[in-house]
Structures are given as structure tokens and as C-alpha cells.
Amino acid sequence: MQNWDDLRLFLAVAREQSLSGAGKVLRLDPATLGRRMGRLEKAMQVALFVKSPQGYALTQAGAQLLERAGAVEQAMRGTAVGDDAKSEGLSGQIRLGAPDGCANFLLPQVCAAIGRDNPQLEIQIVALPRVFNLTRREADMAIGVSAPTAGRLVVRQVTEYKLHLAASESYLEAHGPIGCLADLKSHRMVGYISDMIFDRELDYLADLGAGRVALASNSVSVQVNMLRQGAGVGVVHDFSLPFALPLRRILTDAVSLTRAFYLIRHVDDARNARLARFADLLSAGLREEVARLEALVG
């Protein structure tokens, strides 16, 4: 196995898929980084990357090294964290990937509470509307809206949550009441950009037979803010409504959707006591926060 400094540089290039991107993360000159990667490939006598104008893509050997190097990184992060982690508190850095609805309306409260109880812990929330690749170590763990069936992953359902149609009071006053689903066809709809829906569980409007999406975004928080501005009607998480008071749920008897959040971890991290402790705190916090916020809207 190569020394940790070589692996640290390799991990950055593999994750950023470019010398320039990795150079920014590491604060190293890309040319220096390129020489280091060339030296690493020569020492290992195998090509780790396919180089092209588009960047650095991993070869099969590179993907295998990424998995091994990621395991070394996790072990180093977890050094000195044993069975007494609960009493001594968590420390070090943990990166959490999440869809932006969860990241914007739930994780700030949950992670703030965990951080208060564990002042030496550094929590990074990566909010992106896509599926995270834990094999590439884009994050230490991720929240998903469906349970992945491929990959070396450990998945557990954390909590269910509700969604309903909603619109602002100003929009409803200007456009009249909405009495049934058929009425939606004459209203402006707010929702996801259709070709950027990264999970079938998010394709709410297709199942409702609503009209075209007049205002769209790949971001849940942007959709909520468009609805608050009276842009139209859309599907929103009940847990987001306490942060968007001008919005009011409509057609609650006709439309009530239930989805779930899943906590996804790489199988190689299953025995990492530090990450396991954080996962337990995160799961409990999410369940409590969803229940609290949903109770506020009835």
C-alpha cells in the first residue's frame, strides 16, 4: 500500500475528476499534482486514470484503489474513537449528502443539536438534487428518497413524511377556489424540471394528471419560494410549511402523499463506531424533527 500522502492526493483527484478541481481542494498546483499522480501510477505499475480534455476518469484499477484508499481514510478519521465515543463525544469531520428539501428544512436543526452536544465534531452538509456516490466517497453517508438496490451499501429507513398540494393565499384569492383535481388543469403549476428528476419518488405531478409545469426548478426550496410569491400551485413537504407561512394546503382529502427518507452508508463503514454513533443521532433527530414540524400544520 502506498503512503497516506499519496493516497490523500489520489482521493482528491478521483473525487474531483480533474487536476484543477483537486488542486483547489488541496491548494496545490495542478502541474505538481499531475506529476504526483504520474509517479503513483509508475510506482504501482498500473494506469489509475483515463486522461482526456474532460478530466480524469478512473480505470478499473483506479476504482479499486479508490475503495481501498477510502477505507484507509475512514479508519484514520475514526482513530482514537472507540466504545467510549458516547461519553466523550464525537470529533473530527463527517460529510453528509442530502436532497435539498431535507438539507434546507430539517438538517440545520438536527445537525445544530448534534453539534451542540459534540463541540469537537465538524459536520458538512452537501445539498444536491441527485444520488450520491458513496463508493467514490463523495460523502461519508447520505440521505435518499428511495432505497438503492445496487452497490455495496447499508440502507435503513429513517422516517416517513407527508406531502400535499399548496398555494399562497394571494394566489388563491386572485384565481379562485380549487375544488377538485380537475381544476388544476386551469392553474399554473410549480414543480420539478422534468428531465432533472433524479428519483421516480419525486415525480409527484405526473401521478396527479396536473397541467404543464409553468415554473420549474430542480430545487425544492426554490419551488417553495416561488409558491410563496404566488406563482401557482405545487406539491410541498408538510415539514416545510412552518417555514413558508403564506402557503396553505389544498385538496387534502384528494391528495396526500407519503414518502420516506433512507440513511445510506457504505458497507465498509458498518463497523466504524464513530459513524455508527452519528448515524443513530442523525436518524433519531430526523424522526423527531419531521414529527414536530408536521404536527404544527395539523
From TrEMBL:
One annotated GO molecular function: sequence-specific DNA binding
Pfam family membership, one: HTH_1
Keyword 4Fe-4S: no
One GO process term, biological-process aspect: DNA-templated transcription
InterPro entries found in the cross-reference section: LysR-type_TF_proteobact-type, LysR_HTH_N, LysR_subst-bd, WH-like_DNA-bd_sf, WH_DNA-bd_sf
HTH lysR-type domain: residues covered: 1-59
UniProt keyword terms in alphabetical order: DNA-binding, Transcription, Transcription regulation
Entry similarity comment: Belongs to the LysR transcriptional regulatory family.
Protein name, per record: LysR family transcriptional regulator
Organism encoding this protein: Sulfitobacter guttiformis
